[in-house]
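Components:
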Amino acid sequence: MALFQSVFAMLYQFGDTFAFLVISCAGLAVIFGMMGVINLAHGEFIMCGAYVTASTARVGVPLPLAILIGALVAGAVGMIVERLVIRHLYHRPLDSIIATWGISLIATQGVLIVLGSTMQGVGTPLGSIDVGGRSYSLYRIVLMACALGLLGGLYLLFYHSRFGVIARATIQKPQMAHALGVNTGRMYGLTFGLGAALAGLAGGLYAPTMTMVPTMGATFIVESFVTVVVGGADIFVGAAPAAAILALIKAGLTAWYGQLFGQIGLLVTVILVIRILPGGLSGWLKGTSR
Amino acid sequence: MSVSESATLSRSRTRSLLARLEGPQTMGRGPGFWGGAALAVAAAAAYPLMADAWTVGNAAYFLIWTFMAMGLGVVWGYAGALSFGQTAFFGLAGYAYGVITLNLGAAYGLTLLALVLAVAIGGLFALVIGYFMFYGRIQGVFIGIVTLSVTLVLETFMAQTAGPQWRIGEARLNGFNGMSGMPPLTLPWIGGDIVLYPGPSLYYLLLGLVVVCYLGLRIMLNSPFGNVLVAIRENPHRVGMLGYDVRLYQTLAFAIGGAFAALSGALYTAWGQYITPSSMGLTSAALPIVWVAVGGRRDITATLIGTIVVLAGFQSLTIYGSQYALVVMGALLLLTVLVAPQGLIIGAMTLLGRIFKSRKS
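Structure:
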């Protein structure tokens, strides 16, 4: 029984980290993996989703619906940002980093000025379950299921839907897709909006577990960048195994040495992976399968 | 070799070095430009005569940051590698200066030794990080991500060093609150050390350092080394084909940029006599990018002028309300990227150059 307890505790810790990495990096992976735009405002889209979710949930909207609204609002904001700023910078990736950083600064500080330094959040729903004397939050287990569902849903969307085929065609050969009658500009806008909506979804899902502060995006951004970098350019081949490996490392280090070493372990992993596998996990996996 | 021969050789070497003050990689040439530059330095030197000590100490604060900006200009503008983590070397050197001076004390000009050591530590750290990145063939945007994570991890690490067990010799790291109480820079002098508190004396030292670093960087950028850096920015594959080791050049440029950031960090600690982990945080990391991007990254003169202008602008802005400073900063970044991607100062300088040229012809 004691063995089962500690195995369950490890699994829970691992699943929790895995879910966090997958959910927080999905939006970034779509925007970066598909469009090559490093979106430093990713954390602010997450913050936007979380704020909208929390405020709609407090009005009385049921939480799942509130999360959906949060994701949709973040997606809409993302499409507006794409139309106004990102659209002009597709051929200047370094400049798009700077521009998204500018957006991030404006958003964080703007929210701080308008809404104050903190906002009342929503409590974590669903309570907790007891396994061998220790209690585990049920909501976090739901989040793990959400992470798996998200991966499956994205796979279906990009590989088994008309939108996915057109989007991938646009990303791979924009001129060819354009010649075949695809409105590539609109596809870029939609893809960016999808990425922003996924970020908003991450914010909505984690809103009940966090304190609502304007800088909350920063807690996500390092982990999501780490996952995307380790995963490499192809998000579907790379991101999921990257999240699994990183979760294993982080959960292990956190359990044995504490939170800080979990964080530092992630960074060291990134530097090592980049040194050994420049193309990330997906580059390596594709290279060996060919 | 006779004495006179070696003297002429060294003289011609000096002359060829000085000739590199002007060249294809730096804007500004001829008596007009250098006259203007001399005038600017003279005005800067006369400034403490007209202002009170507090304002001069404040101006010294601006000068401290120019080193980090010029270093980033070399790494980003010239070598084409956007580093988000210059604050990592800044903070590391700041802490190093604090730890060394708190352990050694300030007598016998040991603070200057601490300054040199801190810069060396920062530069070495940049060399190691640069080795990992460039020899790992990390390119483009990934460099930004790696450097950003480095500075953020250093921040989280330093923020949790509260408690008596986190000490290096006499120096306690003090976690989130940071270290304080380090001695300012001192110059050993006959009849007692000169202590450089923020004020005219420190200002003159910094002004001299800025001039030396600026001229040194001009020489370096117009040397073969600088030409190769610019070539790498424009087309790394071609440079590799021509037989240059691209990775080595990029790593060296990154180490130089890191050392300049470290110089800023150590001087900052000496100026304010404190250093906190937030100096390596996200907001601090954004600042050098803003200065360099807004001023213009592809020219060291524009970087220098732009940094001072933006810093002065923000300080006058914070008088009206510090909370809006960050919003304005973000908007400025956005505007620069969308309207004047070269940078505002470079845009203005090319415009001036064109006006002068058309008047001549």
